[in-house]
């Protein structure tokens, strides 16, 4: 059995059974627990959930977007990745320049009201095309602010300089593997007001032992049904790529959480997922002719043997 996936399913059950009902920023409401940890042995296979389909292509293109230091959804849209659209779209519809139909609470309304969804789909498609085709519009409304890629690759200092944390941590792993400072932080308090969404996965640390690279992620806020499956796969992929560059094998991915929650409008979807059996983990293959993490493209990745249960749809809380 896929031990890591079972740990994820056990977490879902724990939240449903023991979670505290809480209000949240989005107004959706959650069932929440605080402080939890899961471990995934990356030697056993690639930890992409099988109890529902998780689109690996979206995981990989988002990670490459982070690695490039990009903060504009244009790259994602060009790769048919729509997972950040809602935050940019929200910025657009709340601007003084937007004069279209009322899009208030579009996430929930588009699920409950078929007529509204038709209108929303038209507005979202028009927004995406404008981001792709209009440079000025893309710079203003496709931009998400100083989110993950900016902090990983271009952290601003008080001396008006920048730090490339990702390059630095790779250099540190290669030259001083026993260091306890292999850390990248996305949580920059000064930049929080300038982010479409403050980083949920806030800090990660690498650890080298017995020729293997392990990674621990601290995630302050975890949308267990929609977000966490992506986060697990993303940081597992990142660990594989950095291990490759540093001539190491992979060890563990350790996922540590703060506020760990299931949104109130995801409960039925979680219950459906919990009724499904766990299948074999896939195997990750990638182009090992690429030596640097910064050289990879989406076409360099392949998953072998991924046979998941069907997708389960749920609204994103924006």
From TrEMBL:
It is found in: Cytoplasm. One of its GO terms (molecular function) is thymidylate synthase activity. Residues 6-318 form the Thymidylate synthase/dCMP hydroxymethylase domain. Its EC number is 2.1.1.45. Signal peptide: none annotated. (6R)-5,10-methylene-5,6,7,8-tetrahydrofolate binds at residues 223, 317. It catalyses: dUMP + (6R)-5,10-methylene-5,6,7,8-tetrahydrofolate = 7,8-dihydrofolate + dTMP. The keyword Membrane does not apply. Keywords: Cytoplasm, Methyltransferase, Nucleotide biosynthesis, Transferase. The active site is at residue 200. Homodimer. Catalyzes the reductive methylation of 2'-deoxyuridine-5'-monophosphate (dUMP) to 2'-deoxythymidine-5'-monophosphate (dTMP) while utilizing 5,10-methylenetetrahydrofolate (mTHF) as the methyl donor and reductant in the reaction, yielding dihydrofolate (DHF) as a by-product. This enzymatic reaction provides an intracellular de novo source of dTMP, an essential precursor for DNA biosynthesis. This is Thymidylate synthase. It comes from Ornithinibacillus salinisoli. The gene is thyA.
């Amino acid at each position: 059995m896929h031990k890591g996936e079972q740990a994820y399913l056990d977490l879902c059950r724990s939240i449903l059974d023991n979670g505290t009902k809480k209000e949240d920023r989005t107004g959706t409401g959650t069932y929440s627990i605080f402080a939890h940890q899961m471990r995934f042995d990356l030697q056993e296979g690639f930890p992409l959930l099988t109890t529902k389909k998780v689109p690996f292509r979206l995981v990989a293109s988002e990670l490459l977007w982070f690695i490039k230091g990009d903060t504009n959804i244009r790259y994602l849209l060009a790769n048919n990745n729509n997972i950040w659209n809602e935050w940019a779209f929200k910025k657009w519809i709340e601007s003084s320049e937007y004069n279209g139909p009322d899009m208030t609470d579009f996430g929930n309304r588009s699920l409950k009201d078929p007529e509204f969804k038709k209108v929303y789909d038209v507005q979202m498609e028009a927004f995406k095309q404008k981001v792709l085709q209009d440079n000025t519009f893309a710079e203003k409304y496709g931009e998400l602010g100083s989110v993950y890629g900016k902090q990983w690759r271009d952290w601003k200092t008080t001396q008006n300089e920048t730090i490339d944390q990702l390059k630095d941590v790779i250099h540190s792993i290669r030259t001083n593997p026993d260091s306890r400072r292999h850390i990248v932080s996305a949580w920059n308090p000064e930049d929080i007001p300038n982010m479409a969404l403050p980083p949920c996965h806030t800090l990660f640390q690498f650890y080298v032992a017995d020729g293997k690279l392990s990674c621990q992620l601290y995630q302050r806020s975890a949308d267990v049904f929609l977000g966490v499956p992506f986060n697990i796969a993303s940081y597992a992929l990142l660990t594989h790529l950095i291990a490759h560059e540093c001539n190491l094998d992979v060890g563990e991915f350790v996922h540590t959480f703060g506020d760990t929650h299931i949104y109130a409008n995801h409960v039925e979807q979680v219950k459906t997922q919990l009724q499904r059996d766990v299948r074999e983990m896939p195997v990750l293959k990638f182009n090992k002719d690429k030596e640097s993490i910064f050289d990879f493209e989406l076409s360099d990745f392949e998953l072998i043997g991924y046979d998941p249960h069907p997708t389960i749809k749920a609204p994103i809380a924006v």
